[in-house]
Design a protein that fits this description.
Blueprint (H helix, E strand, L loop, with lengths): L6 H14 L20 H4 L15 H4 L11 E17 L19 E13 L4 E8 L3 E5 L12 E18 L2 E21 H14 L8 H7 L4 E23 L3 E8 L2 E12 L6 H11 L6 E9 L2 E9 L4 E10 L6 E6 L4 E6 L5 E11 L4 E10 L17 E11 L4 E12 L2 E5 L4 H4 L2 E19 L1
Antiparallel strand pairs: 1-2, 1-20, 2-3, 3-5, 4-5, 5-6, 6-7, 7-8, 7-9, 8-11, 9-10, 10-13, 11-12, 12-15, 13-14, 15-16, 16-17, 17-18, 18-20, 19-20
Length: 467
């Protein structure tokens, strides 16, 4: 019996692929979903506790612009974070796609990723400060082996964002400062996955038999001849948009600082180009079916989707416990529920599909501390709990996101009055999560059933020069 793979099913799979290019990095990034907290080596050392209240270097432009008024001098800061992701799939009872071998478990889909950031702040007067942040607030990648059993659902997934964030701060009095920033953000995304052309040929053969153009007797030999036919598809998309951030910094008795910061959501209209590389069939009938598909459902073209990346709010505080010890804490909320569905449209305006996502808002709690060994050396440590927004029902090989527990350490060296060096390290323990997904069709995409295991290691260094 021939498997039925309808044109509508193929269209839905293409639509899901276009959607995935926008949301493909959840399992790779180190904040919840694909948000990147790694914008500061000094903050990494406390597991990003106290981000909006510490205000001890120029990275505060991103975390809470009001903190610029707490800096003693103008400052330029460079940060480089190196993130190693270990994300592997363990097969339990997966099933191959029609006409294809099952394949391998995919190996480690992670690897090393570099996340740079740069900041500069200026003291304009006793009450006003200005600053600029250049960083990467969302991103990273997953890249499975070419022959893995989920290749028809995901191979390479990469997303990069570039953020330009000018900001101003006003010191209202000795106890209260406010800050406001604008964010110009560009997103670029790339997705690849294999395409099961054996299933495409099988569907075409069924249509030829149904129309009386082909004898059913020769179908089994044609199916066997066209087994193992795979192609590739690549999707690329980009857009740019504006957002804003603001913050408040309050100094209480005992030098206790409380910071409240907010970053707005950013709405994108991402347009992607879809390209297919088709294989050659060993016979003319198979080639004619592949050619027909390349002119219709598997044709190169343009698709677009609206995407709203989430807003976030963070309450931070720092509490001096002695002359050498300080406690820091963060409670952060991220509005990932902005992603409830992905509506994909062609450039003609026709709706290709509506894919449910049903993401949930998340909370992150972090607690850290610093210990001033002497006037030039400060040690840091911290822990954090970070929720995932991805429900089990919508988890995929491209989105194997999981709750994470952070453990971090760091140090600061005051090399001179002008030069400060920071370094930090964190390990993120991820929960093992179940992946059970066929992306709408086992015949086209295989059925993945197994466990995804993910952990992350982060090393950051930072140099700050005060002038």
């Amino acid at each position: 019996m021939l498997a039925v793979i309808s044109q509508g099913t193929r269209s839905r799979q293409l639509a899901c692929a276009v959607s995935a290019v926008l949301l493909s990095i959840s399992g790779a990034a180190s904040g919840s979903s694909f948000a990147l907290l790694e914008q500061s080596a000094s903050r990494l050392g406390t597991a990003f506790a106290g981000t909006g209240a510490a205000a001890d270097d120029a990275t505060t432009v991103f975390y809470n612009p009001a903190g610029m008024t707490a800096l003693d001098a103008s400052e330029a800061t460079l940060t480089l974070s190196s993130i190693y992701i270990d994300s592997s799939f363990e097969n339990e009872n997966s099933q191959p796609a029609l006409g294809q071998p099952l394949g391998s478990e995919g190996g480690n889909a992670g690897g090393w990723n570099a996340v740079p950031a740069a900041y500069v702040t200026f003291s304009l007067s006793d009450t006003f400060s200005a600053g600029l942040a250049l960083n990467v607030p969302f991103g990273l990648a997953l890249d499975y082996e070419r022959d893995w059993m989920g290749r028809f659902q995901a191979l390479r997934s990469e997303i990069q964002t570039y953020n330009v964030n000018p900001a101003l701060a006003w010191k209202i009095n000795d106890n209260l400062s406010v800050g406001l920033g604008l964010n110009y953000q560009k997103v670029q995304a790339e997705l690849t996955n294999a395409v099961n052309y054996s299933a495409v040929v099988a569907q075409g053969l069924q249509q030829l038999v149904a129309s009386g153009q082909l004898s059913p007797a020769i179908v089994p030999s044609l199916l066997a001849a066209n087994a193992g036919l795979e192609g590739m598809t690549r999707l690329e998309g980009d857009d740019s948009a504006w957002g804003y951030n603001f913050g408040i910094l309050v100094t209480l008795p005992g030098d206790v600082r409380v910071g409240l910061s907010y970053r707005s959501s950013i709405e994108y209209e991402i347009e992607g180009s879809v390209r297919f590389d088709e294989p050659s069939s060993p016979n003319a009938i198979g080639n004619s079916i592949i050619t027909a598909a390349s002119m219709s459902t598997l044709a190169d073209g343009v698709a677009a989707v609206d995407l709203e990346l989430p807003d976030s709010a963070t309450l931070s505080w720092t509490v001096p416990l002695s002359e050498s010890i300080e406690m820091l804490a963060d409670v952060a909320w991220t509005g990932w529920s902005s992603i409830q569905e992905l509506r994909v449209e062609r450039d003609t305006g026709a709706v290709i599909s509506v894919t449910p996502e049903e993401w949930e808002d998340t909370w992150r709690i972090a607690l850290g501390g610093t210990f001033a060994v002497n006037e030039t050396m400060t040690l840091r440590a911290g822990i954090a709990l970070d929720e995932t927004p991805v429900p089990a029902a919508t988890r995929t090989a491209r989105l194997p996101d999981t709750d994470r527990t952070w453990v971090a350490v760091g140090a600061r060296w005051q090399a001179s009055n002008a030069l400060i060096i920071d370094a930090g390290y964190a390990h993120l323990f991820g929960d093992d999560v179940r992946v059970e997904q066929n992306a709408g069709s086992t015949a086209l995409n295989a059925l993945l059933v197994g466990q995804q295991t993910t952990s992350v290691d982060i090393v950051s260094v930072q140099a700050a020069y005060r002038f």
